[in-house]
């Protein structure tokens, strides 16, 4: 039996595909904020970007639209295909390249970049040792003076206002999310079940469980330093504010 990421992202890409599409417009503002934070915190203006676990290419395309040379990879072939379509639609296919790849193998990839970005809950899928290896792999892909931007679930904010089970409906789909949290491992799980509307009926598309490590600010800072990053900055969101108990995600800048 393979890792849950293979069942969830490779075998059942439809479980998260619509949610990614719905967040497409947010990528422009998020990329602008990332670039502003890098300039403000590190006086860093990257030209080349590696988008790790890029999904359908929301952020990769947004970086390319701003003139950056971008490479993106994802474990899901379906997401990579959609990312290429989005690049064509945005007329930036000449500035962005996508390929299928696993986060656990990033240390063996070719190329150096001014920025490695791993965004929207794309880090923390594995055991702590493997997550640390992934971070070290990110560092090996950075050229001189390069920086990492990492978006991770904030344990304090998630537990402060833990999400309940939910039902989300659109014109063509209905999605059920059931949340749980494992205290000893600081991991939360979301079981997603998606149905497609067919006339007045619902057809079951799939069920899969998303699992990710949530970090406190000191924890993720320590993990980054152990992976070789000497300067680690912590933000409570893309707007640059300091972390607070109300933030369910952290934006980490490291070099």
The CATH topology assignment of the largest domain is Rossmann fold
Shape: globular
Low-confidence stretches: none
What kind of sheet is the major sheet?
7 strands, mixed
Whole-number total of structural domains: 2
Mean pLDDT comes to 95
CATH superfamily of the largest domain: Vaccinia Virus protein VP39
Can you write the helix and strand succession as a string?
Answer: HHHEHEHEEHEHEEEEHEE
Can you give the helix content as a percent range? 25-40%
N-end to C-end Cα span:
36 Å
CATH architecture of the largest domain: 3-Layer(aba) Sandwich
Strand arrangement, major sheet:
3-2-1-4-5-11-10
Helix tally equals 8
Structural class: alpha/beta
Q: Which strand-content bin applies to the residues? A: 25-35%
Number of strands: 11
Radius of gyration from the CA trace? 18 Å
CATH class of the largest domain: Alpha Beta
Provide tags for this entry:
N-terminal domain of TfIIb; Rossmann fold; alpha/beta; 255 residues; four-stranded antiparallel sheet; 8 helices; 11 strands
């Amino acid at each position: 039996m393979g890792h849950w990421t293979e069942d969830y992202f490779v075998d059942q890409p439809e479980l998260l595909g619509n949610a990614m599409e719905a967040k497409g417009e947010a990528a422009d503002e998020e990329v602008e904020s990332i670039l502003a934070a890098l300039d403000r915190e590190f006086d860093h203006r990257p030209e080349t970007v590696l988008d790790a676990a890029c999904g359908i290419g929301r952020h990769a395309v947004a970086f390319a639209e701003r003139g950056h040379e971008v490479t993106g990879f994802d474990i899901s072939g379906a997401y990579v295909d959609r990312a290429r379509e989005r690049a064509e639609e945005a007329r930036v296919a000449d500035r962005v390249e996508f390929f299928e790849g696993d986060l656990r193998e990033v240390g063996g990839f070719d190329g150096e970049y001014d920025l490695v970005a791993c965004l929207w809950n794309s880090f923390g899928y594995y055991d702590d040792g493997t997550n640390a290896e992934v971070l070290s792999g990110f560092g090996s892909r950075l050229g001189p003076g390069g920086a990492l931007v990492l978006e991770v679930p904030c344990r304090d904010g998630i537990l402060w206002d833990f999400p309940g089970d939910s039902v989300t409906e659109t014109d063509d789909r209905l999605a059920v999310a059931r949340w749980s949290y494992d205290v000893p491992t600081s991991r939360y799980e979301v079981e997603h079940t998606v149905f497609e509307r067919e006339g007045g009926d619902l057809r079951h598309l799939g069920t899969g469980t998303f699992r990710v490590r949530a970090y406190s600010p000191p924890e993720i800072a320590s993990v980054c330093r152990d992976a070789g990053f000497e300067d680690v900055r912590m933000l409570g969101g893309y707007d640059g504010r300091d972390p607070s108990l109300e933030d369910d995600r952290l934006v980490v800048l490291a070099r």
